[in-house]
Every structure is written in C-alpha cells, then in structure tokens.
Amino acid sequence: MKLEPQVEELYRTLDRELDNFPTGAKFYSVRKLMDKFKCHRGVLDEVLERLEANRLIDRVPQVGIFSSVTRRPNARKVLLAVPDWPSELTQEWSMRASRYTETHKNWQLCKIMLTPDRDPVSSIDTAGYDAAIIQMPSTTVTLEDMMWLGSLPIPAVLLNVDTGSFAISNVRSADGDGAILGCDYLYRHGHRRIALVQSEPHTLPAEKRIATFRRIADLFGIQLIHIDCMTVSGEFAQHKAYLGMKRYLEENDGQPGFTAVYAVAGESVPGIMSALREFGCELPRDISIMAHSTEQIGRYYHPALTAVCADLEAEVEAAFTGLADVLDKKTPFFKTEIPMRIIERDSVNQITPDERI
C-alpha cells in the first residue's frame, strides 16, 4: 500500500512529537491531533495505524493513545522498506529486525511497505533517516535503481541482491551454496528423480537457486522434472504451488514419476503436500519433500519440513553492524554473504536402489 505524501509528512511530524512523551505517557487525543496538526481523520487513522505497527504508540479503546517510544535521543534511525506481499520470509526478517533494535538501543527502526512491481525503489522517502535497509519491491533491479541508491545521502543496504561492482552495500544468503546443499542431501538419501518446483516469481535469487540446483543435479546424474507454477509478485505461493503440482499430476495420469520434491520456497510446501495427497501419495513414504526456506517456516508442517535454511538472525546482525561501520566512517560500503545450513526434520525419506524409479 503506497502512502500518500500527506500521510508521510504527518507520520514524520508525529514521530518527532512522540520524543516529548516518555513510555507510558498519554499522547494527544484524536480530536486534539486533528486540531493541532490540521489533518483529516482518514489521514490520521492511517498514520496512527503505522505508528502502532512500528510500536511507537499503543491505542486503548475508550481510554486513549499512549506513547511506547523507548528510543534514546542519539539513536540512529533506520528505515526498513519491504514489499507488501504475503511472504513469511519477509515478515520473519522484519520481526527479527524489530527484536534486534529492541535489544540494541542505539538503533530505532521504522518500517514502510511497498507495492510489488508498482512502487519503484526511487519512491522511497529517506528524509529524516540515518540509514536504510531495503528489500527490492520489484522482480528486477535496473541500472536506474542502482544509480538512485548510489545517490542517496544516507547509507543503504539491499537484501538478497548482488550489487556487483556498484559501491552499494548488500547482505544476502548464499543461495547458490544452499542449492548445492539441498541437491547433495537428496542424492545422499537415494533420490535420482526429483521434481524442482518453482513456486516463486522469476526473481534473481530464485533463478540462481534453480540454475545451481540444475547444474549439480546434472553432475550427479539426477533427472529433474521442472514444475513452474507461474507465480507473479504478490500472489499466494501456497495456492499457486498447489495448482502447479495438481496440473502436473493430472497431465501424467496421477503418476508422479519422481521420488522427491525440492521447492524453491518453503512457504509453498503445504500446497504441494495437498496436491500430492489428493492423488494418494503418502509423505514422506512415497514422496520426500525439501525446500529452500528459513528455520521457522515448516517446523509445524506435517511432516515437519527438512530444509536448506537462510540464517536470518545472522543477516540482520550483518546489516546493522555493517551500517554502523559505514556511519562510523570505518568503511564506505560492505557486501556480506551469509552461509546457509540444513535443518533436518521428517520430510525426507532414505530410499534404497530398489525403491528408485
């Protein structure tokens, strides 16, 4: 959801005003805010929702608005800009960033949402912030994007984007190495025919996972079946994955023709599981499932998901410590790649040569 200029202006004004109200103090009433700052009720409601989402206020029905500001006067103010799409990974990254700033009082975090493939990165207003952490709102990164980022008066770090030779900071998971880990794991568990399910939009990170998985599968002599769910930005990956797997099974008379699935994103796995079960497959006895994911996603799936996991806690730490070094003039920019690791649970079955298709 794109915030109108008057909403942005009022948000910054009230954000500064809250510095005068210690934690627990009662803030202005809605009527007082409208009178004092000459704003419409719709604009004010949107700003108050955002302030509450950023944990700067608490609204108690029939009682009033209370300050939740715990920042210190010299705290560095960081803007976290993320796409407004149904991504558990994005939500988990935001949650961990919020927790980090709660325990590191020299940082203050504010978050905005960008509409995927509609709000360009250049639409971000960085006025009033000391630094920015940005997850790109589009599936591609253009030269214009990089030039705009390079012209910012504050340091910015991109998440999961390779900034190449540009002097722009980034923090990203080692997606390629993660794909190698996943392919090797399934191979060592006896799987030689694997469905590679592309349940995410055709973004650069997703394409890198797929290309690397394909290359390693070729080296191992694994036969891949590529199932492209044709997902676009903002669509619900679980449903698209369900439709993609169901379509494949219908076209093949309900015969999977593979012993394992590797999903590009763990969020899509429930949809894949549902489609397989509709065609009589028992998991993981008949079909094993593994995915590129995070530690939290999949832990309560049935069966619990074995996954190649991004270390989001390490990503958050790297982003903030890197920005601190840039702000302290220790380095002009930084580029950090975080290793991935396998979390073993219950969704991958060891099969014997006799059980291979």
UniProtKB/TrEMBL annotation:
One of its GO terms (molecular function) is DNA-binding transcription factor activity. Keywords: DNA-binding, Repressor, Transcription, Transcription regulation. The keyword DNA-binding applies. SUPFAM superfamilies: Periplasmic binding protein-like I (SSF53822), Winged helix' DNA-binding domain (SSF46785). It holds the Pfam family Peripla_BP_3. Residues 184-348 form the Transcriptional regulator LacI/GalR-like sensor domain. InterPro entries: LacI/GalR-like_sensor (IPR046335), Peripla_BP_I (IPR028082), WH-like_DNA-bd_sf (IPR036388), WH_DNA-bd_sf (IPR036390). This is GntR family transcriptional regulator. The lineage of its organism: Bacteria, Pseudomonadati, Lentisphaerota, Lentisphaeria, Victivallales.
